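ingest -> fold -> write
write: protein_1
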Amino acid sequence: QVQLVESGGGLVLAGGSLRRCCAASGGTFSAYAMGWFCQAPGKERDSVAAIHWTGGRTYYADSVKGRFTFSRDNAENTVYLQMNSLKPEDTAVYYCAAHPKQYSGHYYLRADEYDYWGQGTQVTVSS
């Protein structure tokens, strides 16, 4: 059973930066594709970024391309989401997630494809 613990959210001014961290325990973290999702009030949980288990392939939603960077440190069992040039429309609860299939050749973009979730952390960007 994989457990994910997130940190690094909070309140930031527009144009500022945050680094989200998601630390894993249990399971074989280095074998899992990972994802970051965001959910604003009244909206569905949407993919922000995804990463292959090797860290060699990544996906970014169009809204965050060039501003967010998804990385992983398999030795530390941690993934990171570096969020730069933040905008008020980035305000949401952000979740990290781990896909259940080990050593998959893919990364995954749908929330229903993930079995393991972090607790979610609010990110608020004020203008």
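write: protein_2
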Amino acid sequence: QLQLVESGGGLVQPGGSLRLSCAASGWTLDYYGVGWFRQAPGKEREGILCISRRGVVTTYASSVKGRFTSSRDNAKNTVYLQMNSLKPEDTAVYYCAAAPRDYSFCSSYPHEYDIWGQGTQVTVSS
């Protein structure tokens, strides 16, 4: 079974930074576009950005533009979400998801992704 393993969540003060990792075990992420989503209590899952197989990042959520970005390290079979200048409203469970598509694929729609991580909690609070 193909799985994504997420790590790096936790409690951080407003203005701080976190880096989430999304690792594939036993298969390669090279052939997959990867999306990042988050879900706050009582809210729908939100697609915030994605990184294509080419490494091009597309940001969908205006609230994170200029603060969040993603990168991929194919040698480590891992994709990262770098989150800077964190705000309390960024508090949510964060998910990565992968889709085996062409080189330019990116999407903010959850149904277009096939493999999901387990989610990691990010809490921004003083």
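write: annotation protein_2
The chain has a mean pLDDT of 96.
Residues 15 and 85 are 4 Å apart (CA to CA).
pipeline exit 0
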